[in-house]
Design brief:
single chain; 126 residues; alpha+beta; OB fold (Dihydrolipoamide Acetyltransferase, E2P); six-stranded antiparallel sheet; three-stranded antiparallel sheet; 9 strands
């Protein structure tokens, strides 16, 4: 199972890539595997500013619907519109083309609370 070392992670199985004050967020390889075939990704919070741990959207799989939690406070500045027509990108390439949102980080100090790859691996037993 892939857990890229250059990314940050949450206990809610989201990955975060940070460039300056912009964070790209998606769900981990582990999460997409647990959910199964993803059939729909909904993010209705574009251009909204949310607090850390607030729900920013949902991912619907054949088995279940799961909430997506914001890993850092900030404004959602982009949604991966490719997921509207091809939600399976999350299954095929969770750390690349399957990204979900881009977020303008409100408080960079929150980044220190995120997990590194080893910390995330210990949570999922990898």
């Amino acid at each position: 199972m892939s857990i890229p070392a250059e990314l940050k992670y949450t206990k809610d199985h989201e990955w975060i890539s940070i460039e300056g004050d912009i964070a790209t967020v998606g769900i981990t390889h582990f999460a997409q595997g647990e959910l199964g075939d993803i059939v729909y990704v909904e993010v209705e919070t574009l251009d909204e500013t949310l607090d850390k741990d607030e729900v920013f959207g949902t991912v619907e799989a054949v088995k279940t619907v799961s909430d997506l939690f914001l890993p850092l406070a900030g404004e959602i500045v982009a949604f991966n519109e490719a997921l509207e027509d091809d939600p399976e990108l999350v299954n095929k390439d969770p750390y690349g083309e399957g990204w979900m949102i881009k977020l303008k980080i409100a408080n960079v100090d929150e980044v220190a609370d995120l997990l590194d790859s080893d910390g995330y691996a210990s949570i999922i037993g990898a």
